[in-house]
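quick one before i forget lol
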Amino acid sequence: MSHIELVTLLVHEYDAAIAFFVDGLHFDVVEDVSALTNDGRPKRWVVVRPPRGQVGLLLARADGEEQIAQVGRQCAGRVGFFLRVDEFDATYTRMRDAGVHFVTEPRAEPYGQVAVFVDVSGNRWDLLGPAGNADSIA
């Protein structure tokens, strides 16, 4: 059986990205090891993942002008990443209190509660709660 294991997220710096995902989103660092680029320069292999999550994020430091230009714009300014949580209200409050920047207020949608936030690089994410829960933080 096949499955998606990792998705690459371009970042400016490893440590700032790790801090955001660990402190702000409570992800786990699954791997953080030294590696080499294809042409032999040093880099790190950094993978973060939500607790109990199956798909991880490979935090890849942008290398070169083209990649640097795409940091924070991997999905051209639209929401491109979706974090589903069981406890929407508690997670929203914890993330907000940890300094995560939300660009929308929570709202109820047919697919669940949702609030849009941006990561350390500027990518937009949906924080998603369970479907059918019409309660929302005011």
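fyi The first helix runs from residue 14 to 24.
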